[in-house]
Description:
Blueprint: E1 16-20, H1 24-36, E2 40-44, H2 47-56, E3 61-65, H3 73-81, E4 88-93, H4 97-105, E5 110-114, H5 118-137, E6 144-146, E7 149-152, E8 157-160, E9 163-165, H6 169-179, E10 185-187, H7 188-196, H8 204-218, E11 225-230, E12 234-242
Parallel strand pairs: 1-2, 1-3, 3-4, 4-5
Antiparallel strand pairs: 6-7, 7-8, 8-9, 10-12, 11-12
Helix pairs in contact: 2-3, 3-4, 6-7, 6-8
Amino acid sequence: MTDLTATRRDIAEPARILIVDDEAQIIRVLSMACTAQGYRVKSATDGESALAVLKNWPAELIITDLSMPKMDGVELCRAIRKQSNVPILVLSVRNQEKTKVEALDAGADDYVPKPFQINELLARIRAALRRQKQLSADDKTAEFVLGDFRIDPGSRQVFVRGAEVHLTPKEFDLLHALSLYPDRVVTRRTLMVAVWGGYNVDQPESLRVLIGQLRRKIEPQDEPHYILTEPWVGYRFVPEGAQSDTSL
Length: 248
């Protein structure tokens, strides 16, 4: 199979979006919404047909359902990640927590629960496309600014709203791991591997404790919440701050 990663010939050229779902109504609604925003859209009804489309039409973002015939969304994510870093958004019903985590571990970038709001989905699409463009140009070892944060991996310094925050090595590793995926859900397992190198992956309490410690340092009382809990899945880092429940 050819490389699935899209190469933009013209910076003003509309992004290509592939929609993968076995429900015709979902495809119709998503296609109309994306087309109305100026995106170029193609669709497929299962993972196998999606891969066939991608051979000759390199999408810049993929939206896929999880439950599909022939090849489901998790298998599709694994197949795509073998040769491309194209952003993948998965659609999932609320009782699919286990499958949702499997999809994220298989390479999906984010998920949108069904039923979903079109405006929320379009916002996720815009964010994913911006992230992809930024990641292609960034040096992850260089100092970078995200919302209220300035993070320097070289010196391991962190500034929030201009003020330096002193973190322990593990707290810094956790924040840095979250900051690589701003506004995206990151699974507990991914964070634990990033912080402990594969150890403690079966002890989620260690991560909950560390999350609590980090929050107390970067989220003083009455300040914006930067680390949001995604129940049963993981955490989402919102560098601009958001009002949300911060239960562990």
